[in-house]
Amino acid sequence: MAVTAQTRGTEWLASAGLRPTRQRLALAALLVGDGENRHVTAESLYALSATSGEKVSLATVYNTLRAFCEAGLMNEVVVDGSKSYFDTRMDEHPHFYWEDSHALTDAPADALRIEGLPDAPAGMQVSRVDVVIRLKRA
């Protein structure tokens, strides 16, 4: 039996204990429905939902992406302090940011070495390190 985008989306939400509202189901199906990982902005997911026939406001897309992050389903990757991308791939890995197209893609992690992190302030611990490698045409 073939797994549908709706089924994948429903299972993804259930894995985090999120209530499957119509909007969450629709956005989850777009994000994980084909089994591939995605890097999206709220605006790109909003546009994708509109072309798929789903009526979801941009505010709902933002709120839903935040809920998915808080539930541990996605990571937010901030570029330039103002542009957020949301990544469905949850393992630690670096990213390429393509300055000409404003795209975020996974970068190979095999050659990356992070050494010498500063100690976290008292009472804190490092939760993760984001590596964004910016690319521009030579």
UniProtKB/TrEMBL annotation:
Main location: cytoplasm
Coiled coil: none
GO MF annotations in UniProt: DNA-binding transcription factor activity; transcription cis-regulatory region binding; zinc ion binding
UniProt cross-references to Pfam families, sorted A to Z: FUR
InterPro entries, sorted: FUR, WH-like_DNA-bd_sf, WH_DNA-bd_sf
Keyword Acyltransferase included in the entry's annotation: no
UniProt xrefs under NCBIfam families: FeRespRegIrr, TransRegIrrA
Membership in a protein family: Belongs to the Fur family.
Protein name per the record: Ferric uptake regulation protein
Native source species: Paragemmobacter aquarius
Gene for this chain: fur
